[in-house]
Amino acid sequence: MIELRLLRENPELVREALKRRGIAFNFDRLLTLEQERRTLLTEIEQQRHLLKQESDAFARQQGGQPMSAPKPLKERSDNIKGHERRLHEVEGELEGELAYIPNLPHSSVPVGDAKANQVIRTHGAKPSHAFRPKTHLELTERLGLMDFERAAKVTGSHFPLYTGVGARLERALINWMLDVQTKEHGYTEVSPPYLVNRASMFGTGQLPKFEEDMYRLKDDDLFLVPTAEVPLTNLHRDEILDESRLPLRYTAYTACFRREAGSYGKETKGLVRVHQFDKVELVKFTRPETSYEELERLVKDAETILQRLSLHYRVVCLSTGDLGFAAAKCYDLEAWAPGLGQFLEVSSCSNFEAFQARRSNIRYRQAETRKVAHVHTLNGSGVALARTLICLLETHQRADGRVVIPEPLRPYVDGEDLL
Predict the structure, then answer these.
(1) Which among 258, 358, 359, 363 is annotated as catalytic?
(2) Residue 228 sits in the same domain as residue 267
């Protein structure tokens, strides 16, 4: 959530920042509400002061004898209650308006739509095969790694079902990625719930705008996690952290659930776009002064996974028009899939600055001044399994249709080197 003070004091700055996102937002209603809120707060404070003075004077007049409060006192008290009710309504309307305003992009983010995305660097060269590389669909069918038909029978279309060695490879990837992030990069592992409440979804920015993309249990008003970012970020909702604890780094594996509403005109075969996928997530809580340094480290932590799997990939800085709702800056990691002949997004690493922290009321106490300020939150995929598996299978396939298992995974599959 953007800072209300900034909107009040410099609405043109906010308007210009959103314009860089390609969004024309009318702040008139919001600014009118904010002015009414401030007027009500002043009026309530003044009326309470007068009520106290008048009540004290009435108490002195009583001289210890019980007497009914005079009509003016009751009218002033009722007036205050009326103002308080209106203040509650105005604050609710303000929050509702603010909830739909996206984060402001960082000054380093390229301006424009998706065509303005900038490739920051690439790793390795596109793999060269002396044969027509098969797609992951062909490979998984030949090797018996997945069964999309039975998955559709059990649940519906666009849900995966890993079988046999495919299920084992999935588990190996999860365990290995968690080991890298915890043992080498210093993240604390968490195993969170797969269901989260509405407050958690609001805090990270999925609600209210993207509710149609989420799976919801209507009877309990709980949501299946679209990413482990949601429970991990909300670990410290409504808390004040000591500065000495920062940065906090968490990692978690969860299945992720997304309805992908409106995406059916896109490529949806196989694992490219599914409603359930596995992901190892990385989340950080930092001081504002170090958050962009921590973002670069976060990207490197995710890149480690792709490098050790010997995948060709590129790091892309997203433009203002391609940024996610809550992000101030975002890097996508896109790995090459030779069978499909395209790059696939396997990780997004974002700095949300204080946007999520304001929505979730996550703050820290500064060591020297003892003042309280909002933390900055960051998250990234380290990495998403479905598309990473596509790239792994298609990159390391052989002419005979078998697939070489990358060396880091072999200890997790009893030393096997081939699928």
Answers:
(1) 258
(2) yes
